[in-house]
Design brief:
Blueprint lengths: L4 E6 L4 H12 L3 E19 L8 E21 L5 H6 L7 E11 L3 E22 L5
InterPro entries: PPC_dom
Protein name: DNA-binding protein
Pfam family, one: PCC
Length: 136
Amino acid sequence: MGRLYEVTVEKDENVKEKITQYILEQGWEDVYISGAVGSVRNVKLTNPVSAEFPPRVGTTECAGPCEVVAFTGEVMKRERMDPVLEKIYPDKTCPLFIHVHASVGVAGSHMYGGGFHDGYAFRKLRVFLQPLDEQE
């Protein structure tokens, strides 16, 4: 696997937009997100709400600040994404498909997890990326 890179999402920046911008600037097409450290706010997570395939998904909103406990996933050019996932994630505006699973802790030590749909850096979030298409 290739070298590890870090992108820092500063306070109030949109997490997915910052990751997208960084990956497009690097010219990468296939990236593994190995983790993240920091805090986020106003997070939206998705989870299946039906047993059919592909499942319908529901959204859980975590208003306010959250600590990132887990953050892992993949990024690829939209045309390479699984057609089943296209039905679940219908947004076609971004040239990349960012597929991240996250867990966040909120006040009272409550945990939420699922597909990371949206969120903003609370103080700062460091995201660790490994391009899979980079030549060593």
